[in-house]
Write a structure and sequence with these properties.
The protein has two helices and three strands, in the order αβαββ. Strand 2 and strand 3 form a beta hairpin. Helix 1 crosses helix 2. The longest helix is centred in the first third of the chain and has 16 residues.
Amino acid sequence: MKCLKKFNMPAINKAIEENKIIRFSHNPNLNKYKNSYMYLEWNYLKNECQYTHLIQKGEYWYAE
């Protein structure tokens, strides 16, 4: 969790401020990723940044 706060959250916030597209290489909602930073990042986007869903386009998952 410490890494998420030091690196991931500032990077995510900067990406949002710069209107960048946020995409995941895998669906972070899958049970097998529940202990991953990818899952924590998606929860941060949902809980703190008003993202509501993921959309699969090709092999990527886009946060919207």
